[in-house]
Here is the input.
Amino acid sequence: MQILVTGGAGYIGSHAALLLLEKGHRVLVVDNLFRGNPGAIDRLRGTLDDPDCLAFIEADCTDPKTMADTMRTHGVEAVMHFAGLTYVGESVEQPLEYHRVNTGGMIAMLDACARAGVSRFIFSSTAATYGEPAEQPIVETTPQHPINPYGASKLHAERVLSDFVASQRGSSFAAAALRYFNVAGADPSGVIGEWHVPETHLVPIILQAAAGQRDAITIFGEDYPTPDGTCIRDYVHVRDLVEAHAMVLDALQPGDDRRYNIGTGKGLSVREVIDAVKRVTGRDFPVRKGERRAGDPPVLYADPAKINREIGWTARLSGIDEIVRTAWDWMTNNPEGYA
Ligand SMILES: NC(=O)c1ccc[n+]([C@@H]2O[C@H](COP(=O)([O-])OP(=O)(O)OC[C@H]3O[C@@H](n4cnc5c(N)ncnc54)[C@H](O)[C@@H]3O)[C@@H](O)[C@H]2O)c1
Here is the structure.
């Protein structure tokens, strides 16, 4: 199948592209390189016997005409839409930009699909759409009340998707939005990994402390109502996450508008993740006490039963040691990332 991967020069999109290529699909990456790494595309090319299986176009996913022309020219049959802006703090400072790219990008991509006759669509949504839910674990029907513009822009995008699917009843259009929890780790092959500038995710930040690239790691709040006082999150390995995309794509039926949580169902505290990094890397580093940050719920973890029941997906590589080991291998082998 010819699959368009938007945001394919980014962390998760590049891992999806690698998996899809391994499965024998042809992949077209569209990325405006705002935060993506052209080096990730080079690494993907290096894995291929047939270089024509992968194409890259530097373009903006918020432009529906360019997206429709691109889909037609390349015979795109399905879209995985990862492109977006992803920083919670930045979204508070630049809410219009987040709505323009995340919600507007969804509108443009669906418009392009309609013009080009593309009928399968998978969207990167997020646990941030749930905000601070009253119940744990979080199920797909847990009310969605985002507490920042990032989460709101993703929830709006989900709603645009639902309205579009409803308007296409009777056609072959089918879609799913996957709500990721905390994605971490690197492809076990070592070909690609996580490289964000700036880095805001916990696992690579702790690894930077282990590598001596940071003086220390700061824990924001040790007085939460959790067993060790630190926040609890659900960490899913990026390879497991992209496997879920491939499985959902195979399962889509005309008219579908599916929603799935993608997590392990197990919460780990910040303290437990720090301990895992110390254990796996064999490195010690200072840990400092910081104040709580506004808008950090004490506990967030998924109930992944729905995707397990309906699609058969389960997280296989998502033990914290495996996540840390693959991310550490990537970091130590690529100290300058894709530079
Ligand atoms: N990383 C996580 O833990 C996590 C959790 C929940 C949801 N998500 C979602 O998954 C998706 C991928 O996240 P990631 O961590 O790989 O982020 P990333 O920043 O590494 O990748 C996003 C990519 O999108 C590209 N992009 C941004 N705006 C664009 C535009 N207008 N047109 C074309 N390309 C554009 C960027 O250049 C970048 O390469 C995002 O939509 C994010 O919201 C990620």
About this structure: Residues 6-7, 9-13, 31-36, 60-62, 82-86, 101, 105, 124, 126, 180, 182-183, 196 surround nicotinamide-adenine-dinucleotide (CB under 6 Å). DSSP finds eleven helices and 13 strands in the chain. The mean pLDDT is 97. The first helix runs from residue 11 to 22.
